[in-house]
Design brief:
GO terms for molecular function: NADP binding; shikimate 3-dehydrogenase (NADP+) activity. The protein has eleven helices and twelve strands. By secondary structure, the chain is of the alpha/beta class. The strands form two sheets. It has a six-stranded mixed beta sheet with strand order 2-1-3-5-6-4, with helices on both faces. The protein has a six-stranded parallel beta sheet with strand order 9-8-7-10-11-12, sandwiched between helices. The structure holds 2'-monophosphoadenosine-5'-diphosphate.
């Protein structure tokens, strides 16, 4: 990797055509006048290792990694951040002299989005209710615990998946039955939907939010549509809501900083550009 080369980065996935990351990085590069490129790279699982080892020799400083490579990205790395180890997946690879560094910035993106959009929100204000136990839930749980959430009530349709996460993430997590998710909202300070419920084309979100205090903050990982049924229902209760697009934008910031050497801003103009 020689210093005079134009810095390159990209996102690896299959499929990759619908990724919003190239638009996001292109906006930042142009806004900040940085000479660099960020490419969508369609990579099949069988080719992943070969491609990742070749990218640094082509001038790539790093790459984002999306489905189905988030586990392979962890396994191929020479150095893995503690949070990526805890989450069990990586979404950000950085190529350095001493090898491939893997990190997971989803949890950072989640918390940064809340802090940016609702500056007076604090994790320590009270219990959180988290719906879902997939990959996104792992990053959210890790970030909520690190931010000081006193108790997390975790509800998932398949209870065994929630129990596995409680075992992995420790005693702050209390598993509640999916059927008990509605009463578990009582006294909650934060509600997070990490399920696909309410996403365009997925099953409807039909959880009864009548026990959610008006003082709570509600946020959804889903951002298609931007204003999800869960956020609309929470607002009807008087709650503050934060949509999920910001998490996508904020999770990209650490990679941009590492590869292009500048800190980008998450702005309304960026949101509009990424949604266009
Ligand atoms: P991701 O990695 O994006 O979190 P995932 O692993 O497919 O995706 O997880 C999707 C989440 O949505 C899971 O918690 C899933 O519940 P199960 O573990 O029971 O599958 C949840 N989910 C999807 N459809 C659902 C439905 N109709 N009702 C309740 N939960 C649902």
């Amino acid at each position: 990797m020689s210093a005079h080369r134009i810095p390159l980065a990209g996102v690896l996935g299959a499929p990759i055509a619908h990724s919003r990351s190239p638009r996001l990085f292109a906006h930042w590069l142009s806004e900040m006048g940085i000479e660099g490129h960020y490419a969508p790279l369609h990579v099949e699982p069988d080719d992943f290792g070969h491609v990742v080892r070749t990218l640094p020799r082509m001038g790539f400083r790093g790459a984002n990694v999306t489905l189905p490579h988030k586990l392979a990205a962890l396994q191929i790395a020479d150095h893995v951040s503690d949070r990526a180890k805890r989450i069990g997946a990586a979404n950000t690879l950085t190529f350095r002299e001493d090898g491939i560094h893997a990190d997971n910035t989803d949890g950072h993106g989640f918390i940064a989005n809340l802090r940016h959009s609702a500056p007076d929100w604090t994790a320590s204000a009270g219990p959180a209710v988290v719906l879902g136990a997939g990959g996104a839930a792992r990053a959210v749980l890790d970030a909520l615990i690190e931010a000081g959430t006193p108790e997390i009530r975790l509800a998932n349709r398949t209870r065994a998946r929630a129990e596995a996460l409680a075992e992995a993430f420790g005693p702050k997590i209390r598993v509640v039955d999916w059927a008990e998710a509605a009463p578990a909202l009582e006294g909650a300070a934060t509600l997070v939907n990490t399920t696909s419920l309410g996403m365009a084309g997925a099953d409807p979100f039909d959880l009864d939010l009548s026990a959610l205090p008006a003082s709570a903050l509600a946020t959804d990982i889903v951002y298609t549509p931007l204003d999800t049924p869960m956020l609309i229902a929470a607002r009807a209760r008087g709650c503050r809501t934060v949509d999920g697009l910001g998490m996508l934008l904020h999770q990209a910031v650490p990679g941009f900083e590492r590869w292009f050497g500048a800190t980008p801003n998450v702005t309304e103009a960026l949101r509009a550009k990424v949604l266009a």
